[in-house]
Design a protein that fits this description.
Pfam family, one: Glyoxalase_6
Shape: globular
Number of domains: 1
Number of strands: 6
CATH superfamily: 2,3-Dihydroxybiphenyl 1,2-Dioxygenase, domain 1
InterPro entries: Glyas_Bleomycin-R_OHBP_Dase, Glyoxalase_6, VOC_core
Protein name: VOC family protein
Strand order of the largest sheet: 3-6-5-4
Amino acid sequence: MNENDTDKPVLQLRLVVEADDYEEAVRFYRDVLGLPEQAAFEGEGDARVTILEAGRATLELANPAQRRMIDEVEVGHPTSPRLRVAFEVRDGEARTERLVEAGATLVASPRETPWRSLNSRLDAPAGLQITLFEELLPLEERKELDGFGTDAGRGDA
């Protein structure tokens, strides 16, 4: 824990997903997508869990209009379930191809978004719809784009 962590009320976001085909889900997310294994535990009655690190975590809250707009930009039509998981990757096209080869179903191939990321959409193991995104500009440059930021929470409104 670093000294700044003591000021944070939440230290980690952990998304827990029940996977009917546990081995396939672990193989896909750990071995193919490349999320490092942090820990794994077994219990009575064949209870198993694997905790995978996914880099920095954020919670993205979107209203229905924003969800529809993202679907339109990424896919071309409404498709998102209420919950979708997004992973930032370095090479969106190659990573998308690798996940499809490993069994994910391509919903939409990589395409550039108005907010300057390269996004693809896949149906993946454990019943998750995922977005892979590759940032094409640094955050500071994206903040200057029309519609990127708001005045909410800046303290200067």
